[in-house]
Structures are given as structure tokens and as C-alpha cells.
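This part of the workshop introduces the protein records we will be handling. An example says more than a description, so a record of this kind follows:
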Amino acid sequence: MAVIVVFNGYLEKPSTKDVTHVGRGMKYVGASVKISGFMVFQRKKEDFLYNVVNKQNFIYLLADHLTQSGCCDKHAKADADLVIVQTANATAHRIPLSLQSWLLMTQIF
């Protein structure tokens, strides 16, 4: 059974999460950085992750590495909650019932 990783999507245009981000004090926008799998970023992670283009490109890079390692990846256009539920529903028949119960309990508690 392959691991399925679902990623949030980060758009350059306004999204439903913008209000949450502003409420958390994320008003700063970092500079765009061209990334590769071999680079070392020499600044604070916040400088990199405050820029949604950087964040999305990092997710694409991470997803490529996960796929090469045998994982499956799914990308939401914005918030991943719906895609997580849809993926769980579509793959539930492949997971043993005892594991389903454990997964459900970890989400509740």
C-alpha cells in the first residue's frame, strides 16, 4: 500500500486562507527564490516561506522526491481539507478495518 500525501495549494491570487494568514501576522512577503534540490538556503525559513510562490515551488520539489520514493501525491488548488477527505473516501476500501479505526481515532483526538 503506497503512502498518499495531500498538499495544500498556494495561489498568487487571494484565497480563503488569506484572512487566517493576516490574523497570524503574516503580512510580510519574502523575495522569490529559484530553488533546486541541491541548494542550501542561507536565511531564516520565514523569509522563504512567506512568499507563496516559494512555498508552492517547494511543495512541487518535495512531491517529486516523494513520487520517486514510491509515494503518491495529490495537490489541492488551495486548502487541502476537501481533497484529504475525498482521498480517504476513495482509498478506504484498501485499508484494513483496524487501521481505519486507528486513523479515525487519531483525527478525533
